[in-house]
Amino acid sequence: MSVEQIETLIIGGGQAGIAMSAQLSERGLPHLVLERHRIAERWRSERWDSLVANGPAWHDRFPILDFPDLDPASFAPKDRMVAYFEQVAAMTKTPIRCGVEVTSVAAIEAGYRVQTNQGVIEARNVVSATGPFQRPLIPQDVPAAAGMMQLHSSGYRNPAQLPQGAVLVVGAGASGSQIADELLRAGRKVYLSVGPHDRPPIRYRGKDFCWWLGVLGHWDAKARRKGMEHVTIAVSGAHGGNTVDFRAFAARGMTLLGRTGAYDNGVLQIAADLAENIAGGDRHYLTTLDEADAYVTAHGLDFPPEPEARIFAENPDCVTHPLRSLDLAQAGITSIVWATGYALDYSWLQVDALDEKGRPDHLRGVTKHRGLYFLGLPWLASRASPFIWGVWCDAAYLADQIAAT
Ligand SMILES: Cc1cc2nc3c(=O)[nH]c(=O)nc-3n(C[C@H](O)[C@H](O)[C@H](O)COP(=O)(O)OP(=O)(O)OC[C@H]3O[C@@H](n4cnc5c(N)ncnc54)[C@H](O)[C@@H]3O)c2cc1C
């Protein structure tokens, strides 16, 4: 039986796979996208019900299609994001097969042999667009014997899913801070473990943070700040978009904690780093305001001043007198939501294209293996790379590379 041949095979039908397909189509290059579930599956089934995009509709989109039904300053609900990517796929006639999982990719003389759950395909080029969120990561071990419900943020849907009682949310990036806020609004007692983070102002002097990150050149930043390789960004488009303010959470009754440590006999150790983590987020926030002010001055812009943006409430008691351990039963905690991020998983890749830490080894997505590319990863080419706008630009670059070969 002859093996199906295709010039370029794209693995993954999320925003990266759809963008890659659109860019190849624009250059008239034949290709096929394989998606194991459905287009934009992560948005559909791997996040909570109330999720909205973290960036406003004018920004969080591809340049070929906007959201005519949405206020450009609003934040698209997740169902609208799914419809958006489906719309782009229809518009650009993405050749996609859903329900097809790639189980291995191995090098052959003419390119790559791709094994799927529905047979073999040979491709000259392979673009891995399987995303940065492949395997939910839970850093600590709280044994089942602790007797509480534990789930990763990818499994959290809504407050009603959790048993009555207090909730510990571990991790205060976009997912953790939004989930903790939602639980607090639902009347739960919430403990939130806050690690180091960046905390951009959602709006300042009449412009939103996406606009500011653009004019200040942050989206184009090529390298992470030293020592902040894994920094998490606390940002939220929920409820019309609000700057994540941990002091305001505490004022509403949330107990903030430092990073969670080891578990022993019903008690979690808590690091002494809460005040420093809050201060680090403040520094990032204030630096952004300073840079924005300097930009306004340098360009002679008539933007309304906003001195009140620099006024912080006093640190709450949970920051000035932080808990160093948490007795889960005593605190009435009946569930833990681990909003602790994801790991990569390239177990299907039988090509030596990963570094010693198991991360793709590439330059702007181009590997040392002819015809093998990565797309959609954080810092692939710049800070914007994993975001909707950025992945479009990176896909254009890879399509040019493929066209050139
Ligand atoms: C909940 C959520 C909120 C987000 N908010 C924003 C935002 O506000 N602004 C913004 O710009 N970006 C946002 N993003 C984008 C985000 O930052 C990620 O970078 C983005 O999801 C990555 O897209 P991707 O296509 O690279 O990967 P994914 O969305 O993870 O898609 C990868 C796809 O590959 C498929 N796949 C994996 N392995 C295989 C295999 N072996 N065979 C076949 N198929 C496979 C998966 O099923 C999945 O559909 C958000 C994403 C999510 C999920």
What order do the SSEs take from the amino end to the carboxyl end, as H and E? EHEHHEEEEEEEHEEEEHEHEEEHHEEEEH
Distance between the termini: 29 Å
Count of helical regions: 9
Unreliable stretches (pLDDT < 50, length at least 5) are none
Notable features of this structure?
single chain, 405 residues, alpha/beta, FAD/NAD(P)-binding domain, 2 domains, 22% strand, binds flavin-adenine dinucleotide
Task: Give the topology.
Elements: E1 4-11, H1 15-26, E2 31-35, H2 41-45, H3 78-91, E3 96-98, E4 102-108, E5 111-116, E6 119-128, E7 135-136, E8 149-152, E9 166-170, H4 174-185, E10 190-193, E11 197-198, E12 203-204, E13 207-208, H5 209-215, E14 232-233, H6 246-251, E15 255-257, E16 260-264, E17 267-270, H7 274-298, H8 317-320, E18 325-327, E19 333-338, E20 342-343, E21 372-374, H9 388-404
Parallel strand pairs: 1-2, 1-6, 2-3, 6-21, 8-19, 9-10, 9-19, 10-15, 11-14
Antiparallel strand pairs: 4-5, 5-6, 7-20, 12-13, 16-17, 17-18
Helix pairs in contact: 1-9
The structure holds flavin-adenine dinucleotide.
Description:
Strand 4 and strand 5 (111-116) form a beta hairpin. The chain has 9 helices and 21 strands. Strands 1, 2, 3, 4, 5, 6 and 21 form a 7-stranded mixed beta sheet that branches. The protein has a 5-stranded parallel beta sheet with strand order 8-19-9-10-15. By secondary structure, it is of the alpha/beta class. It has 2 domains: 4-134 and 344-404, FAD/NAD(P)-binding domain (3-Layer(bba) Sandwich), CATH 3.50.50.60; 142-338. The model has no long low-confidence stretch (mean pLDDT 96). The protein is globular. The structure holds flavin-adenine dinucleotide (FAD). The site of flavin-adenine dinucleotide (FAD) has 32 residues, from helix 1, strand 2 and helix 2.
